[in-house]
Amino acid sequence: KIPGIIDNDDGMLTGDDCMILSVAAGTDRVFFLDRYTRRVYALDPETGRSETVLKVDAESETIALSPDGTRLLVSGFRTRGSLVDAEVREYDVQTGKKTGRIWRDSTAAAYFRDGIVGLSHDGHASRLVYYEDPDTPRVLLSGSPELLFSNPVPLDSSRIAVIAAERGIRSLWIYDAETESVSIVSAGEYLDSHLWSHIRGLSAGPDELLFSYHDGEGLYKLARIELGKDGQGELILDRTNYSGGVFSPVRCGTRVVYRAQFSGTDALAGYPEADSGEMVERYPLSFVSRTVGPADGEAAVSDSRDAPVSRDTPDSSDAPAFPVRFEEKDYSPCSWLNPLDLWFPVPLIRSTGSTLRLDGGGIVTYMGTPTDMNVFLLFAAYDARENFGEVDATWVSFVPGAPLTVRMTDGIEFFTNDSFRYPYRETRGSAALSLVRGIGGERIRYAVEPSFEAVWAALPRPGAASAYEWPYEDGLFIPGLSLSLMNRDRLPRELFGRGVSLTVSAKAALPENEFRYDAVFRASTGTAFPVRMTLYGARDESGMDIDGSSFAFNTVPWASAAAVEYADDDTGYHQWIAGGEAEFCFFSAEIQKPLSHVYWNRFFGILAWRGAVHDSDDADAAVEPPGTPIAPGIRFVNSLVLKAGAVVTLLPVPMLPVRLSPHGWVAWKLADGEPLDLRESLVFGLSFQIEW
Prior knowledge:
The protein is about 0% helix and about 55% strand. It is built from two helices and 43 strands.
């Protein structure tokens, strides 16, 4: 146990596995939005019982309750490829159904007077907006790229509290809609420069404000502001460190309920009331008037340099109030593409069946622009076996409004012919545009991905010193289209995720007029016993290996479930393959162990059964194809597979985690010869997956 951290076991009101995004309170119930289930629940703090109130859209973020407790605002986003639209929807608390009222281009909404107040954005500038009805917004405060506002919190029918950030310096504002004036809450020079920079989760109760704060020691704690009728106020800071921290505090009747955040889950807890004692500190507040101009779309608040909020500390009274402003320049993404900013060495390992071979080594480098609109990943390695330099470069751009992925590869590949694998040099370029849209509440999404590839192959030439001297054959040009329907979602803590997905794709190799069709169905559950199932089918007129790869079509959408353990015995040139895999997680341990900027998130073990049926030309094959004959020209293969590995997260740049999943596997082939002959039936391999 960490010294100074106090457990609040008696106050815990929820113990279920949840991730609480937002909390709102009525007179006798607390409402919270759960990210995992995408539901809003109502909790009775006296009994600890909770019930489902309504289901929300996939990208919902905040909730707000009407003063009479009958309606609920849910603010969130709608996705359009790499673009998003902000919107607010209203629900009836009693029925859980939408009322039909929608406020577009606004978010973080709360009820105010006869309408709502929320945030809208004009470029990088945030605006405080009041809607008497959904179609008539009125700007109350307009910010700028240097003046931003947090979620508005109405205090009564005239006052709204917001946290404002001026050039990175935060302060607490109270806007009066009657007088169209702003008052800045001041707790003295030292607290103004230290306290407001670390507050979050602002909410309002009767004549009070509640929020979380951090004083540089321990966890987030509870703070309250009592607003007197005479225009005065008092700040009350509780220095107690409760386990899980204190986040999103709200007043429900006479109790304060807050969100506690633990390593694997969130919980709601009742706060032990303590307005006095050695851990409670009180400070008088003053309210500094701030001049504002008309809210006409320009900066409604007067130049912040007229009345800066000081960042001075008692020991640095001569420090400048604001940092020096930088000169603006035209943005150029190319200046950020430095391959030496973030790179690490990797070995060049090839595996076939149980054969692992170290052929060389190289580097992986990541490059990205500050806006994350362009991302570039480069793998470059030297293949000592073929005296050849391998390159795999991927560029992802979000500028078109949907992710555009352009990839170029040049390396050594292999094709199978009667159980013999032959090397060849493959140079391939591809481009794909992923168009993803949500249906209804965006719990179900569909994706359309047109693609185009061009590929050239060079076959080995006797006496050639390296693969660079192999002559190219005629190229192939491959247009394709993929359609997907899915509601699968995987949270960082989950191994498999939850939901189902169906993907069908078609490609054509021109001018050979050879076609490839794939269909993949996946289903998974994230319960206490995670299970994932994959079913697939493919037809390739050019002929494919048992793992689905072929010369023309080397991207296999079901590669993770392919029967790769039979690759050494495969005769190749299959016209069709169908199969599946069922995976069962038998252990998964979260450790969250940091090593510099590398986080070892979890170790896992998976037991799987996989099987496949494929066509086989038994009469013409030089060697017997793998599997058990079940019909003329059809064979069946199946295996038990044990997988063990880790999930590792890197943070190469802020807010951009890279997830690595290296794991080893051992397969027990049940369809080849004698399964009890372990020398023939056991196959080992390594796999590696990267996501960002």
